[in-house]
Amino acid sequence: MNGKVGDRGEDGPREFVTTRWSLILSAASLGSEQQQARDALAELCRSYWRPIFLFVRGRGYSIEDAQDLTQDFFVTILKHNWLQHADRNRGRFRSLLLRSLQNFLINAAEKTQARKRGGDVEFISWHDWMAESPSQLSVSEQALESLPPERLFDLNWATTVVEHALQRLREECESKGKLWLFQALSPHLTDVRDEVSYAKLSAELGMADTSVKKQLHNMRQRYRSLLRDEVSQTVENPADVDDEIRYLCASLATGTE
Amino acid sequence: MRLDTGVCVSCLLRQGLKGGDEVSQAFYQSVLAEVDAPHKSWFLGNYEILEQIGCGGMGVIYRASQRHSRRIVAVKRVLSYRADSHGALERFRREAQAVASLDHPNILPIYEVSESEDGLPFFSMKFAEKGSLRENVASLRDGPGKCVQLMAKVARAVEYAHSRGVLHRDLKPGNILLDDRGEPLVSDFGLAKLLDANNDLTRSLTTFGTAGFIAPEQAGGAAADFTAAADVYGLGAVLFNLLAGRPPFLGSNPVSVIRKASETEAPKLRSLAPSLDRDLETICSRCLERNPSARYQSAGDLAADLEHWLAGRPIVARPVSPPARIWRWSRRNPNLVGAATAGLVLGAAAVSLFHAEFFRASQINPPDKTVAVFPVSDASETKDQGYKLAVRPSAQEQPGNSTYDFYLQRLFTDVTHPISSTDISVPLQNPSNPFTVPDDTSPGVFDPHRADTRMTAAPPETGVASSVRYRTTEAGPRTNKITADVTPAPPKTGVATTVRYRASETGLRTNKVTAEGPASFQGFVKDSKGEPIKGADVRIESRDGKQLFSTATTDPKGRYISQGLQPGVYRIRLLVNGTVKASILNTRTKVDQPTQLNFDFKPTSQAASIAKGGKHMVWVPARTGSHIGGNWVELDDEGNPHFDSNIQTYNVGH
Asked: Residue A216 is inside which H or E element, if any?
């Protein structure tokens, strides 16, 4: 028993994976209001608030207005049976959310002009979000102005996925008292084999070369599992994970020249 | 595009497309655990992290050194992915908020709340040199006075927190720390509820405390229902743990512990630690009442009683009144009420014990209403037999009327052995309902610990039916005569005894058992795979273990038989390869057939189907697959396990 998820018994059935998004979709197609599905949706919204917020900012709203609108958007989709009214031609969570957000902002623009909101409805306090999802990626005012909001959205979505996976990896290391190992090795997660100076790392860490190699190898593999898990929560079918990652890679490539 | 750390986002994403096995968290943690490089210190804000000293569901705790002052502190940090991130942060904030409002020498202070570079909050607090009570239970157990003194301080600290509107809700040995002088510090207000905060968020959170220490209402009820009484329960459970060496309720998993706490009475302290003072038992019992309103009304009241005890003054709490106990029992066992059947025994000890309880109660709280019959609420008095004497209203009567039935109740179970035709008449001069202790009852002279008040009830299988009449024809406790007329038993049990007891007689009296027919034990011993264990010794000893009657060795089929015994109560020890694996106290022989006693190292789930008939001992490992730590339990005919203080468990390295 080596604990690797990929090693399933030959005669064992393939594990059925329920992603958050598939849970939400199945609840919606049954027309039911399952608490579990609502919780899953709320959790996904909390995870991906930043791309939404930055999309709204990219539309030219001030920080305060963008905060209010983001809150309102979440309240709308969480309370008003969003998926019942959403496009039945379902897509991934990311694309459906973006489409809904675009529609929401068309209506919201009129409302915002009609009344000055006081931030009376809060899905959860803004401060909480900042603390829960600190971003290691700072978006400059210049980028906000120069990039189309849809690009900003995708770019931040991709970054959020990566950050979540890294944060989980970091916490797994820290919970075992090995934060120092994470700090030393995580910058090398994407290095190709030749780029890593194992001699330097092993001297720095006081570990044998072979041990450093093993740790880095397993850290990469674990990171990869975590990243795929993050992505899989936003697609209906786990088989779509690769496609979604490719899409995000492409959006990064075009968004950041 | 790169992260602040300089790593390319795109490259990090593409990692997800590379092949290779998926690595589970458990596997990765095992890989991390292989690293044995010297520890590397690192910084979190102004603190140099020295070592990890704790890790819970929500985060980690470090021992750390403050950068400039070099003061050693504890740093607690949330790891949001270890639990629902929102819940973890909420809990963290609540703790910081709760403790910030508290300034008490026995509450662990928080020094600073801050945020690390990754945006997650942490706080620093006083470092408790001696760890928590959990690690100190063994060293404290020898000194009940020290335990009580410590818990009195803890109760005062909790009283103070309550006065500031903060309920702790997760009091347990692990949350009571000791500083370098051994002074207790209440910590971990992560589940604290601010009494005056009307916040729906706190209510919707799952707020389980720790099984074994949380109040029953906390496990099942809405958060809004919690009161200070839930913390009183927690304090009582911790005190119980310190004094008895184990929490009030045990079980193979947290759910079963919580269920037991909700459905059954807490065991009596002295059933586990007979040498302790009865007042301490009363105090614990009062805290562990299932009904919150029956507990001490405040942590301060509990602290006061503990202080009374320390000063040698009478405590305020008194044992639960018999009507309450009768009512409770009849509520639990409606089908048994009134189902008196034939054939068992009542030692007159019961009545004398009643006096002990009865007058002791009056000593504390003089002229108060109580009832003329009693349960032997202190099970330790009859612990040698594994039974306690209890009482219920007679079949046709309601509580409070004059006729009651006795029954023997197996300790810590609801298994009862009714005693036929017993009744107790309420004294004529006190016909009130229930009757009242006479005002002139003089307290203090009836000492339950004196030898002349301790008698032993015979176990039911000795087959003595009895009728007891209790008369108070003379004034004053010393002159009460207690007479038990014990009538002949049914013939097949072979016992025909008439015994007359007087409470004023000195010396320990025991029913003599003179059965003619031989008794025997037999059964099997099997290992965790169900294979017989050959050559194991089953020793039949006297109850006190001082006399060895016989040793039976298992054959290749794992069977043993030990014949030629006198009917009675024995201690049975199981030895495998010369090592004691289990010791079953107070095992009775049956007189008309061999007594079955099986030892099975299988987990209960697998053994349930073979539990029919006889006494079936099953080893329950502390965790699946382990044969090192765990408990022996007794399976009943339904296959349900029962933990019983009569079963002494040894480490089973089989």
From this structure: helix A209-232
Which of B356, B358, B353 lies closest to B368 in space, CA to CA?
Answer: B358
Chain A residues whose beta carbon lies within 8 Å of the beta carbon of residue B40: 180, 205
Q: Which neighbouring-strand residues pair with B388?
A: B409
ipTM of the complex: 0.75
Q: Cβ separation of A134 and B120 shorter than 8 Å? A: yes
In tens, the pLDDT along B559-584 reads: 888 877 777 777 788 888 777 777 77
Residue B402 · residue B327 · CB < 8 Å: no
Which of A4-8, A133-137, B230-234, B320-324 ranks highest by mean pLDDT?
A: B230-234
Residue with tokens 């959860």: A124
Which residue from B653, B651, B612 is spatially nearest to B635, judged by alpha carbons? B612
The segment with the largest mean pLDDT, out of A41-45, A198-202, B308-312, is: B308-312
Nearest CB neighbour to B27, from listed A4, A137, A161:
A4
Q: What secondary structure does DSSP assign to A110-178, as a single string?
A: HHHHHS-------SS-HHHHHHHS--S-PPPHHHHHHS-HHHHHHHHHHHHHHHHHHHHHHHHHHHTT-
Q: Mapping DSSP to helix (H, G, I), strand (E, B) and coil, where does residue B84 land?
A: coil
Of A131, A136, A220, the CB nearest to B4: A136
Q: Cβ separation of B3 and A136 shorter than 8 Å? A: yes
Testing the interface with B: which of A20, A50, A171 to mutate, by most B Cβ within 10 A?
A171
First to last CA, chain B: 60
Model confidence, pTM: 0.44
CA dist., res. A63 & res. A59, Å (int):
11
Query: Phi/psi of residue A210, each to 5°?
Result: -60, -35
Q: Is the dihedral of CA B36, B37, B39, B43 positive or negative?
A: negative
Residues with Cβ within 8 Å of B646's Cβ and at least 6 positions away in sequence, in order, are B386, B411, B584, B585, B586, B587
Q: Which of A80-84, A85-89, B372-376, B596-600 has the lowest mean pLDDT?
A: B372-376
Q: Which two tokens stand for residue B25?
A: 């968290």
- Under a CB-based contact definition with an 8 Å cutoff, are residues A55 and A42 in contact? no
Residue B359 φ then ψ, to 5°: -80, -25
Stretch among B54-58, B108-112, B540-544 having the lowest mean pLDDT = B54-58
Q: Which of B7, B40, B121 sits opposite A189 (nearest CB)?
A: B7
